[in-house]
Amino acid sequence: MKPPAVKLKTLIDSETLARRVAELGREISEDYKGESLYICCILKGAFVFAADLIRHIDCPLRVDFMRLASYGNATESRGKVKITKDVELSFEGCHVLIVEDIVDTGYTMKFLVDRLKLHKPKSVRICAMLDKRSRREIDVPVDYVGFTIGDGFVLGYGLDYAEFYRDLSDICVMETP
Ligand code: IMP
Ligand code: MG
After folding, report:
1. 83-126 pLDDT tens trace
2. What pLDDT does 75 receive?
3. Are 21 and 53 in contact (CB under 8 A)?
4. What is the 69 CA–ligand 2 centroid distance (Å)?
5. Would you say the CB of residue 159 lies under 6 angstroms from ligand 1?
6. Are 86 and 66 in contact (CB under 8 A)?
């Protein structure tokens, strides 16, 4: 199967990403000093970000994975969200840090935070690599943001287009022909 042909422009290069991820790791380590963390990595898009981020967090931590799907087409998400893979480790009484790729309308994170709170964590915070703040439709606090970006469709560094391009080291924006 071949990747769909796209025209790409680098938005955030790998060196800039690495520097920001290290900063986020330091900030998170300070905030959770003396605590242990439960990292909830949202598949598939956040796996590269989470893998880099956890190596900059200086606290004892456990990692688990959840996969969420929003009903919609390839480039636009809709308001309805479902869990297609749930976490396996219990997080009751834990400081949960959700590690997400992009917060766009906010529906996905709003759904997840409400859902996780049912299981009585000690706290729930969100760390998003990218924030498309201008597209927010529902209020959700994003505690740690890598970069705030505009509303173009981005891929690379874990993010896909039709399941391809997750392996790109830079975050690129798709240019419409
Ligand atoms: P929300 O529910 O609208 O906030 O949707 C967030 C989800 O939409 C993210 O987890 C991504 O999977 C997806 N998404 C939004 N914008 C992009 C993009 O530019 N590239 C890839 N995925 C995106
Ligand atoms: Mg996603």
Report:
1. 999 999 999 999 999 999 999 999 999 999 999 999 999 999 99
2. 58
3. yes
4. 7
5. yes
6. yes
Tokens of 36: 């242990």
Is pTM beyond 0.70? Reply is: yes
| Structural domain boundaries in the chain | 36-68+78-154
Closest by alpha carbon to 148, among 125, 129, 161?
129
Q: 92: burial class by Cβ within 10 Å (0-12, 13-18, 19+)?
A: exposed
Q: Whose C-alpha lies nearest to ligand 1, atom 23? A: 102
Distance 68 CA to ligand 2 centre (A): 7
CATH architecture of 36-68+78-154: 3-Layer(aba) Sandwich (3.40)
DSSP state of 51: H
Atom index in ligand 1 nearest the CA of residue 46 equals 10
Q: What is the full DSSP assignment across 143-170? A: SEEEEE--SS-EEBTTB-BTTB-TT-SS
* Cβ–ligand 1 contact at 108 (below 6 Å): yes
Output the residue whose Cα is nearest ligand 1's atom 9.
102
